[in-house]
User: Fold these one by one.
Assistant:
Number 1:
Amino acid sequence: MKKALLLLSLLVWISIGSFCQVKVQNKDTSNKKATAPKDRNMFGLYIPRGLKINSEGLANGYIMFVVPNSALVYLLNRRGEVVHQWKGNYAVLGAYLQDDGSLVQSAEDPDYPVFGFGGPYGRIQKITWNNKMLWDFEYATEEHITHHDFTVLPNGNILAIAYETKSYDDAIAKGRKPEKIPKSGPWLEKIIEIEPQGKSGGKIVWEWHVWDHLIQDHDAKKANYGKPQNHPELLDFNSKGIPLPPAITQDSMDILQAKGMAERNETADNRGADIFHFNAIKYNADLDQIVFSSPNLNEIFIIDHSTTIKEAASHKGGRAGKGGDFLYRWGNPQNYQRGDSTKRQLFGQHDIRWIEKGKPGAGNLTVFNNHPPGEIDFSNMGNDVHNYSAIYEFTPPVYKKGNYIIDKGKPYGPEKPVWVYVAKDTLSFWSSFISGAHRMNNGNTFINEGARGRFLEVTPDGKIVWEYLNPITGIFVNRMVIPILQYHLLMQDSALPSYLLIIRVLPTKNWNPLFHNQNHFFCQ
């Protein structure tokens, strides 16, 4: 019996000792310094979300935003509360607020053909504050489709970016190098002005095609042959841009489609058809000019809107006298052979816009510069590189009649921005795609760090005075996701949440509907 008791006591002491040893070992392990992960967590996975900073004395207003593959548009107050939702019938990619509380929004057509990557949507709609559909216009055929951004003109018309298909032979006839052309032919860019008619109609009252303003020095037998450095008003059809992806068989593409690893309507023949990828458009009523962005070319462009349709297809006419040719371009003078890589300013940029009248910096342009100082590998969204993001404000060299100054043999200025925002540690402000920024009435700048779903207001000296991490997620479709108003993106194996872009800060004074429709308040 004594032996049994001694054996039992020994076992108890061994167990206690083992337990204590484990506890000590666990404590020691927790004190070890963790190795910094290679992935920079650009999407903000597993971090706390909601309101982070809400300083005293901020301008009153609201924030409007949308999330992936959702028919909802959200209105957020400064306390981080959702106070209103607009609900449409299809996934919304972007929306613009009207003075009566209605929205003009882009919506993804459920059955558009041919196109399927590069941000197509195919429908533009107008819905009331109370979610009544006023207008539902479809622009989606086998030949063309609206994509990415649009803007509402003062007269109520819509300026929209659209793809138009061109055949392989068309591209060859225009002087594009064969190795730059997918078998299906490229998708070229155009801008259309739509006059809404009735509940679903729309008349194209103005249009501009990049096809009419191409130059190339590859094939001297073609009508558009010339030296790009002598014609910065034209686009070199063989600008470097994004190379075609490696060729694959249709059987391989079918496998990718079955696994949800390819995009809608993507085939072995049309991969890489989105060669210029315009992603933002804005209008300046005083100048009657349009600015748009091409992240594939790392450049922004300005054209004249005062032209007729015929003049827009030519090199003469309009207020500036240059027809539909570029009045100005900035970001990458390599595209017109007037500078090397050291002169490049933009890297995959988004959301180009003029600063509006009455705001500090009025007349300047702002842009979200996604990934300086170089290229990234989009197969992993650049998560393991040392790129960062920046907001640029720059002053275009404009003079009378809305023309822009350029010296002979030199690129368009300016040589550098007048204001730049980067994080104090540089690397923590980072979105390799999507995103945007705009100037506020108080001189601060409102920023959307798109991939992370982070909204922040910064002062001119770079101090963050308001910060919010969006907790609302969209709906995943296999591995495909629409992360903002603009993009279809192929993710890697992990199911990553995606948070969407801030559209604008809304001034309180325009928001009578908010106070007269208390039953529409939603907190979340």
Note: The chain is about 10% helix and 30% strand.
Number 2:
Amino acid sequence: MIKEYIRSIFKRYFNRCFFPNTQFTPRYLLLAVWVFAFFFPPQSVIAQRDTIALNANWQFTTDKQSEGLKAAWYAGALKNARKVSIPHTWNIEDSNQTHYGWAWYQRSLDIPINYKNKQVVLEFGAVNHTAFIYLNGIKVGEHIGDGFNKFKIDISRQLKAGEKNLLTVAVNNDYGKNKVPFGSSFDWPNDGGLIRKVNMMVTHPVAPQQIWVTPSLQKDSSATVKIRLPFNKAILDKKYAGIKNSIKLNIQIAPELDQYKRITNQPHLTLHELARKQMTTALLTPEWEGEIAYATVQIPKVNPWHFDFPHLYFVGVFVTTEKEMIDIIGTTVGFKNLEFINGQTHLNGERVKLMGVEWTAGSNPNYGFAETDSVILANCQMMKDVNAIFTRQHFQQDELFYEYCDRNGILVQQEVPLWGPETPASEVVQQIAMKQLDDMTTNLYNHVSIFSWGAGNELRARDADMKPFISALMKRSRELDPSRHTAYVSNTLNHGYITNPNFIPDAAAEGDYLMMNEYGGSWWSIPTGKINLYLDSVHMSYPTKPFFISEFGLCEPNFKGGDERRVEDLIYHMAIYESKPYVEGAIYFDLTDYRTHYPGTTDIGKFRRRIHGVYDMYGNPKPSMKVLREQSTPIEIQHVAGAEKGKLNITLYGSMGLPQHTVSGYQLYISSATDNYLATKAHPLPTLKPGQRHGVKVDALKGPYYITIVRPLGTIATQKGFVE
């Protein structure tokens, strides 16, 4: 009832606004349109842009003899198939754990007659790693050697409106050479299948394919939003010339409601109240470059995105002519400036240092790469529970992962999944990697959490064939997205220094900052006491480059000692990094023990793993989890002492190590147990800059007690136990 009521209101206001010979009040029209956009996100508005989930009722069968293509399995119903839901991977099934080859998926599409003359596009969240797509027995597209990027297939011309259509997808996850990562050169699972959701999008025949927004934050907190809308190329056809020449963009920009309520602690704030105070609107005629439309909007004042206050804004665009609504499309963005100045990191003008952890997707053997939303979010929350504000990803993730990082203040370096010295710099690999980079930046462009694009991990970065390849990837990323940084993750920065007369710089030096995997005392067979000398030598060789540790940690079973050694290794390495003023940040590897096909473990099948995390594969914390949390806190409980009778004095400091940033909006609790602090009195803390001291006087508790400091979004920054 509510939706139908809003639909009717919207249609009335829309008619008054965009059709001639009517009167209207622009301010309230825009408000009504904006409210409507929030009730009906761009996925489904008045049948202008419909998104239909295609995750149920699939038929599936393996093709262990690789006969399906030759036998034309796509021409009719699959034989000996069974029903599955998407996301799905066969490599967690008992009978298919070690099947690396072909498998087939199929389902029917009941297409209504009104889809005729519409733009109909299939969107695959990811298919690992190669897919051939057929509709009614005819091949309509393919996606080769890319298991993690989202991709789209336009089926508008092949679709039979008013009939049942047969959709078939052949999938291959062999260890082939026509893919990235190359062959078996990667250290994560090789789960094949439709590993992420599948959707069908139905729009006007010339509607935009997507929306790209480039937000720019100024020092006075004003902002600029530049919008790019790549329309269907059909808009260049003569029959649509009238549409293109008359298109208007009705643009509304305002804080994203749920996030704003969460950050400002205003749970009862209404959309109307927020829009009335903080909405920017514009009705513009776009500029055109071929089929791409451009528009720019100025915003007088925005709240910047920060680790503890990750403000987000919704950008909604109503694409109209005087005669019809073409499309309603939108996205969520944030405003931030992350800069490197004299080798130091600055976020929105503030000097910061970063600390975080990486999560390897697919680690739970119950799900593999076919992770549900709840599994993805649970792992993201585990990242935040160890105070992560910084991460990297070896391969592209589900969209939900980046949405979480957007909403929870985690900076991301997103990488093309080139991994390992076995990877050749062949023409085929370079072509696939370049296309993956293009698709990755296209798909993920609007996520404020992503600050950098990565050109791969642990390649042969000083070799004559590989170094130009890495350089070309970084050059291309700058061309695709000048608003972000780029880097390469190296394990060869310690293979030669500037003091050597034959010194050849590492490919990592061509990035905007250095990312170095550091495994002193384990993979690096050196005494741990020499780690600091290696770091000094790297910094001396590249003194102007911001220097980050992109991986460190303990890998079992290759290196024995269990979680006790993991804790010792973590504390020791963090002490070294924090003693080096030039180390700008670090990423612990890994969040969980993770599944892999790689050698070095006695586990078999889907349980093959590296024991590398502060949680196990199922998300159960180890003792090292709390150690990582405490090492990664931006606020320190330094001293607790008795005051007058019944009181305690608690001395706090803003962290001067890793991480390092201003803390604001934090609250302190004192409780009798670790899990009941929210039932006690909250003590708001003042804003603290790194190194700044603050004293808090609280009521003492008899016996054991715990001091807990909570971040503005509700996660624990630090928790320590004491005895009175």
Note: Residues 1-47 have pLDDT under 50 and may be disordered.
Number 3:
Amino acid sequence: MSLAVAKKGAITSTGPSAWRPAVVAIAILLVLAVLPSLVDPYQTVLLTYGLIMAIAALGFNLLLGYTGLLSFGHSAYFGAGAYTVAFIVRDLGAQSMELCIVGGLLGTLLISALFGFVCVRHTRIFFSILTLALSQVLWSLAFKFFWVTGGTDGIRVAYAKLTLLGGLVNFGGPGSFQRFVFAYYYYVLGLFALATVIMWVIVHSPFGKALQAIRDNETRASFVGISVRHYRWIAFVISGAFTGLAGVLWVPLNGLTTPDILYRRRRGVQLSQDLCGREHGILAVPARRGARGPGVSAAVGHRGDSRAPCRQVYQGDLMSLLETVHLKKYFGDTHAVDDVNLTIEEGEFISLVGPNGAGKTSFCNVVSAYYSADSGKIIFQGEDVSNASVTQRVKAGIARSFQLVNLFDDLTAFDNVAMAIFSREGKTRNIAALAHRESEVTREADAVLNQFGLAGKRNELARGLAQGERKLLDVALAYALRPKLLFLDEPTSGVSTRDKGQIMDTIASVVRGEGITAVVVEHDMDVVFKYSDRIVVMHQGAILAQGTPAEIRKNEQVAMILIGSSGPDAFSRKD
């Protein structure tokens, strides 16, 4: 695997290059270990501050570099950790630094969980501004409640009162400051090394790969079953905890905790450190927020995860796989989906056809929860999923590909498929395992790539694939979810006439071989007649006709709308 691919966060990595980061990290650790013997105590203090801010940068980078969220308010969690330690020492008389760390982390987790719950409901600049506003609230509280926080005078924490390693190291007697400086440097260095290892495991775990998927394409992440808002919240809390740990370690060295540590100037310092010091920062991997989605307007985003879950058992006589009942979706005066009643039986290969603007893609968007229906019901396997979110419908067995190819472009072809498998199996919740050691996922992902003829493109970035290969990978990603119902939105659009047959042969072979019910949106009537069990024709948002390929061929009204010609043999004359 090339180094370029490895830097993009590939799930698998083999060869000598896999060991290079570890070798470099050990070398840096050794250099840091000998530095205090080469410099004076003041410089050692500066090095300690640097290590503390590096711990903060680890947490900040998880949110910015791996999740794609820019926070302007992370100093709030630095300050939360610092103030918690100050309160513990002043009010409880604690002396153990380990007790201070535990207390500081608990305090920071509480604040970051609360702030994160509010902030991750928004994205882009709204997220950033909200983090800034909440941190300013915390700063104002620390400044105004001076009888608790000490106001501008702050809270003093004397290093001489603290002990390290459960009381084994204390700092009383002559020369205590110099002893504290050197002992505390190695204490912080050890915690920095531990924090780095923990963060490395997190970002290389299935959970970390899910965060990268969200960063690259949150829409596609939702449609492989990842609860975007939930994962962002967890990343926010973890990021806050690392930043809070830095605030805890900062207190004994500085000796004074004031509202200034919550102020915005410290946020700018932290941001610049992260941008300059990490491979996965925004300068290296720009976050692709809001990849182009399908449908009437890119401005109409999906609202799947914001709806309350609802999967009520349908009480009718329905025995089919899917039924839509009086389904409607309007965009102003445009009736994109207009009172559609459609039943899909298990195992069918259905083509959804119609002129541009007929409502085909909008229908798929509504059923898959990319759009919410204005009215009507969606019954899937006897259950009402009309109010279910994207992720809930994916877990129920509804998957889709997109009209405009929707992939994780900064991940390899293998990683794209593996991400779908991780999500399907619930492994993206695993934060303490390494993704590349999931051998069953590796075998299945390779098998899926082989089924779709993409085995030779395994380690190539998705953005570098040809259009036909990208189309196949888009379908493979949906297929890897093992759905019961698969929507394929124009799987041959944008490819040559010669390649259309190969792509459809591959898709039909896989879908029919696995017994998956498929609904294909298609304009090429040669493809439609060749592969379909049933054809559904839409016009102006409503179903105009449906039937077997032979029946649709004879429908003069359909022929007039689709090809502008009428007569019983209109499609044959076109051929």
Note: Residues 1-9, 264-318 have pLDDT under 50 and may be disordered.
